[in-house]
Write a structure and sequence with these properties.
The protein is an alpha+beta fold. The chain contains 19 helices and 17 strands. The relative contact order is 0.06.
């Protein structure tokens, strides 16, 4: 049989972390690319191959910061991979040793050339620096500076001589008395003098400005206004002289005038001045470089170290990638083989697109595991089908309402459904694996008959007492297999307690209706006759009139008692259909409690209900009747314990107490009536709600039956329990009963509403 290989699967770690690995790979490649770009840009800037000057302020600092940040990120990335490789090696992951060797080889390939180049570069830079700062070079630089300064001083002396002579002549000829005459004639004299002087001294231009820098007279070339610094220096009596490629410039104060300044311009050799300035600037840079020689060497060394580290760690990262391509196929194959050895036949080797020997080995491995998996799946399918049949049987048993217990040939239970555990009030451990006749003694007779080899089917009705409740069960034991060697039994039982109770209730209702009809007819004539005899012959009876009065009163009282009993029979036989309204259950409780407080003033009634209204859909009249019956039963139980029942002349002693609580949740409302009377019987407690079942001397046995019928009509529930050991005041109860009436807030089925 040819088996197609299963789809190729990636390693578990790659499946779990695919997106994280993908993001890491993209970031790592972006980081490598950024590092390469940084290395190239740094080299171009240092070699002045760009317009960016490396000696400009902040350029080297920015380059170092960017390179260091990239280096730190690359170091963190490589360190993380190294730590991961170390952890994989500690955990015994396949292929990690080979992976480490390959990465080490790439590291050596990258670091050896870098170290050798670093040594050569250090020697070269040091020799170059020694040559740059030799005594001969320093002498040439110093002589150039001296020559440039000599030319500049010569030009300053020439323009200084002209300026001093012109100021002296101006003060002597234009204002010999030292007075300023602000007139047109004075300006003409100043203009004429300035023109003669400029022509005589062959100056291209000049001018006179006041102390605010405003022009007074300008002759020849355009003369720029003197700057504030020039005016400040000239105001002290000194000359302000400036030599630029545009020409020489001198600013001097006119002493007699005081508020005027002379500005002269002289032509200079533009090229010589430019050479002088460039020579001075170059010499200053040379001296600064000589002064910062160690810092320059350290900077270039740092830059080279950063670039070298970027290259080294980049090579290591590339080594990781190459090693992964070589080691990962082997690691996948080893990992898949380990998974197969652990029983995972679905393990497959993820194959790459390469068509080499490793890929062929992976395909052969996948074919082998696919054949093994197919053969195992056939065996597993057979076992699964058997398990499915078993689970189906168990599911069917768990869904039926009847209790089902499977027995082996020795009568031990091996299968039990949920309904059986519920009906028997037992756990699975108490039934399964044990003899059913021992675990449930009530079934021992039927099980013994079935095991004795009698009929193939045995059926009987039994009663099982669990706690305070007795259940009526119809039990059937059926033989499962005919052979004696491999036989079993199935025990099924249904709870027919409610069915029997309903049959009894229906039968008693019919009996009550007939009794009420037969007895009620003669009661009225009997009562009327007794009352007439009493009225007519009371005065005529002279012998023992007390006996006559007592006899007639007895007849009237007993007829009344019989009449009330007949009325209860009628009420039970003809329970009306409830008419549902939205009622405040709290009002109904308070009204019923008020009536009982009036009837039983010796008993303490504790009403624990909230003040706000609690609305329930119910028939208020029927609910009041049910509450009255429950409270009446509670009062009779208290009287039976603390007083003499039926004796109105002997009131109750202190201690009788009845609590009425109202409890609620979002779906239900409950009324709890708790007394401290004689309590409920332990035996046949569940039968107290059947008609004519009572434990009291004068009880009719219809009170709780009527209450249960009312609760069933309201889709509610009636519960009979023992009272809690303490009341809400903390006092201890020796005995007592708790009757709980539970109503749904809203009926889920259509009912007859008021007005319909």
């Amino acid at each position: 049989m040819t088996v197609q290989p299963a789809p190729e699967q990636a390693p578990d770690w790659l499946q779990r972390n695919f997106f994280r690995v993908a993001r890491t790979s993209v970031l790592s490649y972006l980081l490598i690319f950024a590092s390469l770009v940084a290395v190239v840009v740094t080299y171009l800037i240092l070699t002045r191959s760009t317009q960016i000057e490396p000696t400009a302020p902040g350029v080297l600092l920015y380059i170092i910061i960017v390179d260091v940040l990239l280096l730190m990120a690359l170091i963190a990335l490589v360190t993380g991979r190294l730590v991961g490789m170390w952890m994989q090696r500690r955990s015994g992951t396949a292929g990690t040793r080979l992976h480490g060797r390959l990465v080490t080889i790439f590291f050596l390939i990258a670091v050896i050339p870098v170290v050798l180049t670093a040594g050569a570069a250090a020697i070269t830079i040091n020799l170059a620096m020694e040559a740059w700062f030799s005594s001969g070079v320093r002498s040439v630089v110093d002589n150039s500076i001296a020559l440039a300064e000599t030319y500049q001083e010569d030009q300053k002396r020439v323009i200084q001589w002209d300026a001093e002579l012109m100021v002296s002549d101006f003060n002597a000829q234009v204002f010999p008395g030292g007075l300023v005459v602000d007139s047109e004639a004075t300006r003409q004299r100043m203009d004429a003098f300035l023109r003669r002087q400029l022509t005589t001294r062959q100056l291209p231009g000049g001018g006179i400005f006041n102390s605010n820098g405003q022009e007074v007279i300008v002759v020849g070339l355009v003369v720029d206004r003197p700057s504030a610094d020039e005016l400040s220096e000239a105001s002290t009596g000194a000359l302000s002289i400036t030599i630029t490629p545009a020409g020489g410039r001198a600013v001097a104060r006119l002493d007699p005038v005081g508020d005027f300044y002379l500005v002269l311009m002289r032509e200079v050799n533009r090229e010589l001045v430019q050479y002088q300035q460039s020579t001075t600037e170059a010499a200053q840079n040379y001296k600064r470089l000589q002064r910062d020689r160690d810092a320059v060497q350290a900077t270039f060394g740092l830059m080279y170290a950063i670039i070298a580290l970027l290259i080294i760690f980049g090579a290591i990262w590339v080594g990781f990638g190459v090693a992964n391509r070589l080691v990962m196929p082997i690691g996948r194959l080893i990992g898949a083989a380990e998974r197969v050895s652990e029983g995972d036949l679905a393990a497959r080797v993820m194959l790459a697109d390469d068509d080499d020997e490793l890929a062929s080995l992976g395909r052969a491995f996948n074919r082998m595991t696919a054949q093994l998996q197919s053969q195992r799946n056939e065996l597993v399918d057979s076992h699964r089908q058997a398990e499915q049949r078993t689970r189906f049987t168990e599911a069917v048993l768990s869904g039926v309402s009847a209790g089902v217990v499977g027995l082996d040939a020795q009568g031990r239970a091996d299968v039990v459904n949920r309904s059986a555990l519920t009906l028997l009030s037992a756990s699975r451990e108490e039934i399964v694996g044990r003899d059913l006749a021992t675990a449930v003694p009530e079934l021992s007779a039927l099980v013994s008959d079935a095991l004795s080899g009698g009929e193939g089917r045995v059926q009987s009705q039994i009663d099982i007492a669990r706690g305070a409740k007795t259940y009526s069960l119809i039990v059937t034991v059926t033989r499962e297999r005919a052979s004696e060697e491999d036989r079993g039994f199935v025990v099924t039982f249904d709870d027919i307690t409610d069915l029997i109770m309903a049959q009894r209730t229906s039968a008693w209702a019919d009996v009550a209706r007939r009794i009420a009809h037969e007895i009620k007819n003669p009661l009225t004539p009997i009562q009327l006759s007794a009352e007439r005899l009493r009225r007519k012959y009371k005065k005529e009876i002279t012998t023992d009139p007390e006996v006559f009065e007592q006899c007639t009163q007895t007849i009237i009282r007993q007829v009344g008692d019989i009449g009330r009993m007949v009325d209860e029979f009628s009420s039970f036989a003809r329970m009306p259909q409830p008419v549902m309204r939205d009622e405040d259950i709290g009002d109904l409780i308070r009204h019923a409690v008020f009536l009982q407080r009036v009837a039983l003033p010796q008993i303490t009634f504790a009403l624990l209900t909230p003040d706000e209204p609690i609305h329930v859909e119910c028939d208020g009249r029927l609910v009041s009747q049910a509450l009255t019956n429950v409270l009446k039963n509670a009062g009779e139980a208290v009287r039976a314990k603390f007083g003499k029942e039926g004796d109105e002349e002997h009131p109750l002693t202190d201690g009788g107490r009845i609590e009425i609580r109202l409890v609620q949740d979002p779906l239900r409302v409950g009324i709890e009536v708790i007394d401290n009377g004689i309590g409920l019987p332990k035996e046949d407690r569940n039968r107290l709600t059947e008609p004519y079942v009572t434990k009291r001397v004068k009880g009719t046995g219809l009170g709780l039956a009527i209450v249960k019928k009312i609760m069933e009509d309201h889709k509610g529930a009636l519960a009979l329990e023992d009272a809690p050991k303490t009341d809400e005041t903390g006092s201890t109860r020796e005995s007592g009963a708790l009757v709980r009436l539970t109503f749904p807030r809203r009926l889920a089925v259509p009912v007859k509403l008021a007005g319909e």
